[in-house]
Design a protein that fits this description.
The chain has about 325 residues and is of the alpha+beta class. The protein is built from 11 helices and 12 strands. Strands 7-8-9-6-10 form a 5-stranded mixed β-sheet, with helices on both faces. Strand 7 and strand 8 form a beta hairpin.
Length: about 325
């Protein structure tokens, strides 16, 4: 029977311990958190990364220990994503959602481990230690159990681990070729790769994807960068409002099942009697959106000019979708006053 590995028992996150299986590995048995092809394509190896304690490293320096037996599985996943990237937005959308979720989840988990290890360095005492946040550890434990799909063939029974959105950025508007951002507290992760923006809420069992189904349908068009940022803000705020944490259980095999064929995971919400999402608050949403719109000079004052209806560049006042060109004109009007 395939069993789940739990690195949170004993907090086994350091070097020398495979991040997926827990078995002992040598100092050279590692893989990059950001795959080599991604680093080469976007020149990431020396890109600086500031951690929560304000120490600095580089994206290329981030690595995860990995057992040699698992290297082919992750190499195949990276190769699949490199092929998808060559096909643009359509290529990414053709990837099975659980595969894309796992690929993004591996990078997000690597960022989490980097933060966790740095906080274990003597004399470093962050304001909000990750390992001392019981609710966050609970969320990460559930996330990591789902991430075992990188280690063994896994069937997510009747659910998807998280919500993944593939957006298309209009190349007519200047924007960096590569961007990433994440939020460790809500387990959200986003990458901009050329003209594609990948947004993932990693531990919601697809609930945010369901809630944003119409928005995502409307956003399947070339977007102005500020429109993509607004979509991200809605997904990120949705993850903040998510009020439930799933419990993940491996399904016990039946006598008819071949041994060690695949891991079947079931997911249950921890409290089905409570609301799935906390109430929406325009002020809190405006704060999230303002951080992602800061590059265009849009503030919470712009966003809440009408406190009952936050500013949108995805939709017009009547609720109709705006094109990238229409959003650009509206943005210019807002900036010039």
């Amino acid at each position: 029977m395939i069993s789940l590995y739990d690195p949170f028992q004993g907090m086994r996150f350091g070097p020398g311990c495979c991040f997926l299986s827990g078995e002992q590995v040598g100092p050279n048995d590692t893989i990059p958190v950001f795959p080599d092809w991604l680093q080469t394509t976007y020149d990431l190896s020396e890109r600086p990364l500031w951690l929560l304690d304000q120490s600095q490293t580089t994206l290329g320096a981030l690595r995860l220990p990995l057992a040699s037996a698992l290297r082919p599985r992750l190499a195949a996943l990276d190769a699949q994503m490199q092929t998808a990237a060559a096909g643009g937005a359509a290529g990414w959308r053709a990837v099975p959602p659980a595969r894309l979720w796992g690929w993004l989840g591996r990078m997000f988990y690597g960022m989490f481990v980097a933060e966790l290890l740095q906080q274990q360095v003597p004399l470093i005492k962050p304001e909000y230690p990750l390992a001392e946040n019981a609710h966050l550890v609970q969320r990460f434990r559930a996330f990591f159990q789902l991430l075992q799909g990188l280690r063994v063939p896994t069937d997510y029974a009747d659910f998807v681990p998280g919500s993944v959105f593939v957006l298309e950025a209009d190349p007519a508007y200047e924007a960096p070729a590569f961007e990433y951002d994440d939020d460790l507290n809500t387990l959200v992760f986003s990458l901009k790769l050329g003209n594609v923006v990948l947004v993932a809420t990693l531990i919601d069992l697809g609930l945010i994807g369901q809630a944003m189904r119409q928005l995502y349908q409307d956003a399947r068009r070339p977007l102005h960068p500020a429109q993509a940022a607004e979509f991200k803000a809605r997904a990120y705020y949705g993850a903040y409002l998510l009020a439930v944490v799933p419990d993940i259980y491996p399904r016990r095999p039946t006598p008819a099942d071949p041994p060690d064929a695949e891991l079947v995971l079931d997911a249950l919400l921890d409290d089905v009697t409570s609301a799935v999402f906390n109430p929406w608050e325009n002020l809190a949403y405006a704060h999230t959106l303002s951080t992602l719109w800061a590059r265009w000079g849009l503030t919470e004052a712009h966003i809440l000019a009408d406190p009952r209806q936050p500013l949108s560049l995805l939709y017009d006042a009547a609720g109709g979708p705006l094109t990238a060109a229409e959003a650009a004109r509206r943005l210019a009007e807002l900036i010039t006053g």
